[in-house]
Amino acid sequence: MKTRLLFIAIAIACLLNADQAKWIQEIVNNANSLKSASQKEVVPLAKSLQMKKFIPAKILVADVTGLDEIWLMADDGQDGNSGDHTSWVDPILTTVDGKEVPGVEAPVTWKWTQWNQFTLNKNHMGEPIEIAGTTYKTAWWAHANSLFCVKLDKKYTKLQVGVGIDKRGDTPQQKVGFSIYAAKPLAWRVQEISTAMDRSFPNEAQWLRQDIGGSHFILLDPTANPTERLVKAINNLAEQQGKAGSHLKTKLQQLVSQNEKLDKFLELYIQAREGRNAMSDIDTILVLAENTLEFVEKSVKLPGYDKKLADLRKRVEVQKEQKTGDWATLGREVKTIRREILFKHPKLAFDDLLINKQPPPTYSHMVDQYLGVRSRPGPGLVVLKNWKSQNPDEIELLKGKLPVGSTHHPDLSYDGKKILFSFCDHSIQNPNHRRFFIYEIGVDGQNLRQITGTKNDSFKRIGDRNTVLIEDFDPCYLPDGGIAFISTRCQSYGRCHGGRYTPAYFLYRMDGDGSNIKQLSFGEANEWDPSVLSDGRIIYSRWDYINRHDTIYQSLWTIRPDGTGTAHFYGNYTRNPCMIAEPRAIPGSDKVLALAMAHHSYTAGSVIHLDTKLGEDGPEPITRVTPEARFPETEGWPTSPYKSAWPLSEDLTFVARGREQLISEGRIQAVNSYSIWLIDSLGGREQIYVDNEMSCVSPIPIQPRPVPPTILSTVHPNDTGKPGRVFIQNANLGRTDFGEKIKAIRVNSIICQPTAAVPSR
Asked: Cα-Cα-Cα-Cα dihedral of 269, 274, 280, 284, to 10°?
């Protein structure tokens, strides 16, 4: 496995500053709001000792007289282990006239739970709740950590409830604490706000961890003294800059003597941190700029830039020798000229960039995330005119043409004039009835048409079953004028998901007008992300599950557009990464770009190149393009995950980059998690576009691209779909050396699973 080097310092140096004025204002506003917290948010009405599995339920009694609502919180018992199975059993509410009623009859108006699981009167497996051998008929059940709100409307005077850990709890050692509040607990609010700020301002959060020993929580906690922490941090940063930091010390003394407010200290902290960063990284940034000029001039000459860089290097050396000057300003100058040079590369000589403004789904799992029921609405397709500028013009292609909804996985036609995409209509009120269908629109916003799910769609299902809602997504243009896509028309389920609605979906194709829909792949689990290789074959991701590990082995396969010639491409015996997704041919190369991702998370992770001349499995064919992002799940969880990469060459790639750590199943990423970046083989990372309110993904340059060859079909036009005959001439002539002669082959018939739940997987 090969890794591109020189990344870490370069990446930090190349990050663009966030809106620092907005950062300061949000800290001040949130800190002031939290300082005005009421006693209801601080002091619980009732609180348990730390509970463990197999301990009988303890009774909590809370006076709820005159309250509109109560908040029930389960924490990790301060042992750092979350995810246990907390139960609030036999809750009894006493009305103002003395009548006792089951607490579960009161509505739950708000909830947050680990793993998104909250149930009434049963655990997550649908079983009766049992604590230390006692079974309970009524209960609120939730994974810890959790918080939920019960509406009372001043109708009650008392709540009595038992608390404990259900029999399905993980281990006897894990602890859980239970508390009841009259308002959302202050500690929860502080954590909620600080986590949101960590996500929205990841660069500043990283600075705070380095300089004050924590992130935004320390600045927002009403019981802490943030100014004192900032004074120490600014002093330390100034000391590290020597004489160049003397002006920071002078300013700091003025702020302290004048007893200035928090915002002034934050402004000075930014100056100190930027200067420290620039001083540390200036040599690396300058080398990157010089290497970038050499790289671009292999394609186009740029007279005058060598002198500009030479002048900057002289200024750097003088500033080092004199130990004075403004390092932050000098660092910004170097980064600006490096960006100018890179953008003059001929591969970037186009005007418009397509992106998709779309929040992550509400479930972080490789299968569930693609379903309409899990989608969240967003503006959808946006064209960035003059994309290289700091403030490109934005054109929303779908505005006023489609209802509020969710847009996924656009693909650009080979002539650069049309866009395929999948869309889920959110004007449908019942989320369980929402689904994706395939649409097309011109890059100029004209000629919108729906391709699947129309009145002309036969909705033909395998076996005429009707057990799964038909959804179509992941469309891509084929060289013969057809469209490949993924669909649930197979009407089956995967075998790994218990009882939740998580259908299987496979590779299909259709004509450009939506007719002649045909299933291409007949797998057992799920398939994703078809695209076309430079030789005309379709490449896609496929999950092999039967008789195998349930988490790893989501690999890449190829198939001809007529459904013949299915073949392994890479990774069917490779454990790391555990899933490979979003494959794309790299223009001018026989390598393939792909994404190393997790099983139990979103489609996001680390960008890789695959060279199958070096093998179809193992680490040798892999080049890590973004080595700073670990392979999710198998190596950990990357802090800046990537997704929806679009290669221009082996050296230049557009990507969406996350501003928060990739999360595992059970949690939801923020709506504004991703922004658009350009990465290069030198280790540079240039932010292209960010919307602080909405995730931006799927960057695609709007320009023509070469059309791969059309592979003529080997299927007889009068094929009636009768069973075919398959023979193997010599099983020992294969793509894998098993170390000994093959004596027999077992053939399994995979039976479709028509229901979600099975007795045992």
From this structure: 160
Cβ atoms of residues 513 and 503 within 8 Å: no
Q: CA distances (Å), 733 to each of 441, 568, 741, in order? A: 47, 15, 10
Phi, psi at residue 661, to the nearest 5°? -65, 140
- Amino acid in position 184: K
| The residue to which tokens 């929402």 are assigned | 434
CA distance 710 to 530: 16
Number of domains in the chain: 3
617 and 674 in one domain? yes
pLDDT score recorded for residue 246: 85
Q: What is the DSSP letter of 399?
A: T
The residue among 139, 166, 184 that closes a domain is 184
Answer yes or no: are the C-beta atoms of 269 and 233 closer than 8 Å.
Answer: yes
Q: Which of 415, 485, 479 is nearest to 444 (CA)?
A: 415
Going from the C-alpha of 655 to that of each of 160, 352, 572, the distances in angstroms are 53, 15, 26
Q: By C-alpha distance, which of 611, 548, 604, 562 is closest to 580?
A: 604
Alpha-carbon torsion angle 440, 441, 446, 451, nearest 10? 10
Q: Given the structure tokens 């794309």, which residue do they identify?
A: 584
Give the model confidence (pLDDT) of 75-114 as tens digits: 887 666 666 789 999 999 999 999 999 999 999 999 988 7
For the entire predicted model, the pTM comes to 0.82
Instruction: Pick the closest to residue 307 from 322, 321, 290 (CA basis).
Output: 290
The pLDDT tens digits for 552-609 are 889 999 999 999 999 999 999 999 999 999 999 999 999 999 999 999 999 999 999 9
* AA letter at 197: M
340 in a domain, yes or no? Answer: yes
One domain, residues 99 and 168: yes
Among residues 666, 663, 497, the alpha carbon closest in space to that of 113 is found at 666
User: Strand, helix or coil at 106?
Assistant: coil
- Which residues in the chain come in under a pLDDT of 50? 5-16, 18, 761
Q: State the amino acid at position 34 in one-letter form.
A: L
Regarding whether 656 and 612 lie in a shared domain, the answer is yes
- Between CA 630 and CA 494 the distance in angstroms is 28
**Residues 689 and 541 placed together within one structural domain of the fold:** yes
Q: Which of 524, 530, 539, 533 is nearest to 510 (CA)?
A: 530
State how far the Cα of 73 lies from the Cα of 565, in Å rounded to an integer: 56
Q: Helix, strand, or coil here: 367?
A: coil
Does 748 fall in a domain?
no
Burial class (CB in 10 A: 0-12, 13-18, 19+), 331: buried
Q: Which of 436, 434, 439 is nearest to 451 (CA)?
A: 439
CATH number of the structural domain spanning residue 594: 2.120.10.30
DSSP state of 152: -
Kindly give, in sequence order, each residue whose CB lies less than 8 Å from that of residue 210, ignoring residues fewer than 6 positions away.
none
Could you list the residue range(s) of the whole structural domain that residue 104 is in?
45-184
Q: What CA–CA distance (Å, rounded) separates 76 from 150?
A: 21
Nearest alpha-carbon partner for 685 in 204, 9, 203:
9
CB 488, CB 469: distance < 8 Å:
yes
For residues 337 and 330, what is the distance between their CA atoms, to the nearest angstrom? 11
